[in-house]
Design a protein that fits this description.
CATH topology: TATA-Binding Protein
Largest sheet: 5 strands, antiparallel
Number of strands: 7
CATH class: Alpha Beta
Shape: globular
Helix content: 40-55%
Number of domains: 1
CATH superfamily: Kinase associated domain 1, KA1
Strand content: 25-35%
Mean pLDDT: 88
Oligomer: single chain
Length: 126
């Protein structure tokens, strides 16, 4: 009985690991409306959210940030455009994320979903 339970548990764990590493459709965030008091308030929230996901930021222009993540041999680059009224997150480049034009490794979606959800939770139009 214990062997059966252990075997079942092992097979479930292996199936979760295998499916968790497969590519997924890429999540896109274009012109998502928000309601913040200022652009600087949105930028500060983006900095906090990106820091938690080990994403480094670099200014591209006044309302655009380039975001970089390197982890376990994989690298990722995306753009975050923001204002007090809306934000967008655009994929730029990656290595090790198996991007093929439509699908990408789930880690990319995890990062951008976390940033988008954080902005919506803080500034989203209710």
């Amino acid at each position: 009985m214990v062997k059966r339970i252990l075997l079942l548990f092992t097979s479930v764990l292996i199936s979760l690991l295998v499916t968790g590493c497969q590519v997924q459709p890429m999540h896109m965030y274009k012109h998502i409306p928000i309601n913040a008091d200022s652009d600087s308030e949105v930028r500060k929230q983006i900095e906090i959210l990106c820091d938690y996901q080990y994403v480094r930021l670099r200014d591209e222009d006044e309302h655009t940030l380039l975001a970089f993540n390197q982890r376990k041999g994989a690298s990722l680059k995306f753009r975050i455009q923001y204002s007090k009224d809306e934000f967008s997150i655009d994929y730029l480049d990656s290595s090790g994320y198996r991007y093929n034009g439509e699908t990408i490794h789930p880690r990319y979606n995890w990062i951008v979903d976390y940033i988008a959800k954080g902005l919506n939770d803080r500034f989203g139009i209710k």
